[in-house]
């Protein structure tokens, strides 16, 4: 594990830490861990979707119409 120094407004950090009943250090550590995990998830998800696109893994027009039809009302001509 490594140390990191950042500058944040003391008042903002102190208020939230107090509301969460956590130390400033714990709160900021959790916030950074959550951010890194979320960004990593999104990166890997996008990478997987791009690989699907490169393989040509797309739904056909007929398959797409079936899914859309499943969740929308059929419209009748007036």
TrEMBL record:
Taxonomic superkingdom: Bacteria
InterPro entries assigned: Non-func_TypeII_TA_Antitoxin, Ribbon_hlx_hlx
GO biological process, any: regulation of DNA-templated transcription
Protein name: Ribbon-helix-helix protein CopG domain-containing protein
